[in-house]
Amino acid sequence: MADFWQMVEFSHLLMSRQISKGAIVIDATAGNGHDSLFLARIVGEDGKVYSFDIQEKAIANTARLLAEHHLLDRVELIKDGHQNLDKYIKKEIDGMIFNLGYLPGGDKEITTRKDTTITALEKGLKLLKYGGIITMVVYTGHPGGREELEAILALVDGLDPHIYNVLNYKFINQKSAPEILAIIRRRAEERSS
Ligand SMILES: C[S@@+](CC[C@H](N)C(=O)[O-])C[C@H]1O[C@@H](n2cnc3c(N)ncnc32)[C@H](O)[C@@H]1O
Description:
Layout: H1 7-18, E1 24-27, H2 34-43, E2 48-53, H3 56-68, E3 75-79, E4 93-99, H4 114-127, E5 128-138, H5 145-157, E6 164-169, E7 179-185
Helix pairs in contact: 4-5
Bound molecules: S-adenosylmethionine.
């Protein structure tokens, strides 16, 4: 049974409500592959996951996990920054998942960064289909994490409410816990339904 008090699992719940079989999705930060594995399962055999990471170790860990579950064929692993996603993906996407910060078990100095995260989010928003979703799990405990969160909040705060629903999910009483941002793109005419 999933534990929805865990932010990553809650982001998966939100994602699984919007994404169906055959979907095209992006894992912006492959890391140890847990999000890619989750996405590979929900998109089914006709779907596709593009997974980015700048670290060889993360790409290798993700490939190993997917291979163990016989799901590697649904995932394209890309060793490049998510800020370059438009070099690889030209079509619309149904969803995108960000799990920011550093690689668990890896080098804590290599983290996602404010500027590249914002570029990737802007590019992801341009590709996002109506009904599509972007979730971001954002950590603030490491250097630069708070600034990264503030930059993301500033960007999503300015998104047209006629087109996007934006949710900020966080613990009120645990200041250092990660937060979730979830952005759902809607058609303007659906907004009052
Ligand atoms: C918290 S981990 C991701 C965890 C992963 N989603 C999982 O399920 O295990 C963050 C990852 O972001 C990666 N990263 C940092 N900057 C990046 C960038 N510009 N583009 C893509 N990945 C990046 C790091 O190398 C690290 O592996």
